[in-house]
């Protein structure tokens, strides 16, 4: 059974920590509902968009497809998004979409 209260508490703590400048993630859960949880507040300096990713087995933040919460701190908006990252394309998805790279 999925504990939605645990997720709500994690998101609340995540939002509070984005205001503190603390970049540590050790106080956060490592898993949720059979998914690995990875959190990014930044390395050395705070990230412009802190995030929480939920990774299925075999997925990685640097190479995978996963749900991710993104916090746009400058406008105080938390977004649940669909993260897609393919290291073969240096983080740019839709390699077949020529409009993204200016080749109409």
Structural write-up:
The protein is α+β, with helices and mostly antiparallel strands. It has a single domain (4-87), classed as Metal Transport, Frataxin, Chain A. It is built from 1 helix and 5 strands; from the N terminus they run H-E-E-E-E-E. It has one helix at residues 4-20, and strands at 31-32, 35-40, 51-55, 64-72, 77-85. Strands 1-2-3-4-5 form a 5-stranded antiparallel beta sheet, covered by helices on one side. A hairpin with an 8-residue loop joins strand 3 (51-55) and strand 4 (64-72). The protein is globular, with a radius of gyration of 15 Å.
> What value does the Rg take, in angstroms?
15 Å
**Unreliably modeled segments:** 90-104
For the record, the count of structural domains works out to 1
Strand content: 25-35%
Named CATH topology: Metal Transport, Frataxin, Chain A
What is the chain-wise order of helices and strands?
HEEEEE
The helix/strand class is alpha+beta
Largest sheet: 5 strands, antiparallel
CATH 2nd-level architecture = 2-Layer Sandwich
């Amino acid at each position: 059974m999925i504990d939605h209260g645990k997720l709500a508490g994690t998101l609340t703590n995540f939002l509070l920590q984005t205001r503190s400048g603390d970049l540590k993630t050790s106080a956060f859960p490592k898993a949720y509902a059979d998914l690995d949880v990875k959190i990014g507040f930044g390395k050395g300096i705070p990230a412009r968009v802190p995030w929480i990713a939920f990774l299925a087995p075999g997925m990685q933040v640097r190479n995978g497809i996963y749900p991710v919460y993104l916090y746009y701190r400058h406008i105080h908006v938390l977004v649940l998004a669909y993260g897609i990252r393919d290291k073969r394309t240096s983080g740019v998805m839709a390699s077949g979409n020529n409009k993204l790279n200016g080749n109409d």
